[in-house]
């Protein structure tokens, strides 16, 4: 089981549309840990850690988001693993 972590900065209409909550639901479906936080500049920062294939599926979902979101860009970086046992929003 190959594990990985990615940090994503999601741009577009992603605040006030349930993006973080939907990201948490999707992450939990994939068995991932991490977080989804609103940033002051209107983007959402997402950290996702877990099995490589699950992270890949989740990363593809980030481009879609919930129906009310309009994602224009997702910047992804592979990052060092973070020890977390859940997926938080804030």
Quick synopsis:
The chain is an alpha+beta fold. The protein has helices spanning 19-29, 52-62, and strands at 3-13, 33-38, 44-51, 70-79, 87-89. It is 24% helix and 42% strand.
The parts where pLDDT drops under 50 for at least 5 residues are: none
CATH class, named Alpha Beta
Structural class: alpha+beta
Strand content: 35-45%
CATH architecture: 2-Layer Sandwich
Helix content: 10-25%
Enumerate how many helices there are, as a single number: 2
Integer-rounded radius of gyration: 12 Å
- Listing every helix as H and every strand as E from the N terminus to the C terminus, the arrangement reads EHEEHEE
Number of domains: 1
CATH topology: Alpha-Beta Plaits
Give a quick account of the main beta sheet: strands, pairing sense, barrel closure.
Answer: 5 strands, mixed
Q: Can you lay out the helices and strands and say which pair or pack?
A:
Layout (H helix, E strand, L loop, with lengths): L2 E11 L5 H11 L3 E6 L5 E8 H11 L7 E10 L7 E3 L1
Parallel strand pairs: 2-5
Antiparallel strand pairs: 1-3, 1-4, 2-3
Keywords:
alpha+beta, globular, five-stranded mixed sheet, 5 strands
Task: Give an overview in words.
By secondary structure, the chain is α+β, with helices and mostly antiparallel strands. It has one domain: Alpha-Beta Plaits (2-Layer Sandwich), CATH 3.30.70.100. It has helices at about 20-30, 50-60; strands at about 5-15, 35-40, 45-50, 70-80, 85-90. Strands 4-1-3-2-5 form a five-stranded mixed sheet. A hairpin with a 5-residue loop joins strand 2 (about 35-40) and strand 3. The longest helix is centred in the N-terminal third of the chain and has 11 residues, at about 20-30. The termini are far apart. The model has no long low-confidence stretch (mean pLDDT about 95).
């Amino acid at each position: 089981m190959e594990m990985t972590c990615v940090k994503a900065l999601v741009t577009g209409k992603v605040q006030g549309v349930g993006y973080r909550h939907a990201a948490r639901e999707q992450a939990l479906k994939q068995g991932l840990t991490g977080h989804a936080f609103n940033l002051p500049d209107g983007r959402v920062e997402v950290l996702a850690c877990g099995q490589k294939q699950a992270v890949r599926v989740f990363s593809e979902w980030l481009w879609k988001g919930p129906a009310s979101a309009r994602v224009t860009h997702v910047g992804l970086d592979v990052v060092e693993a973070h020890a977390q046992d859940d997926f938080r929003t804030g």
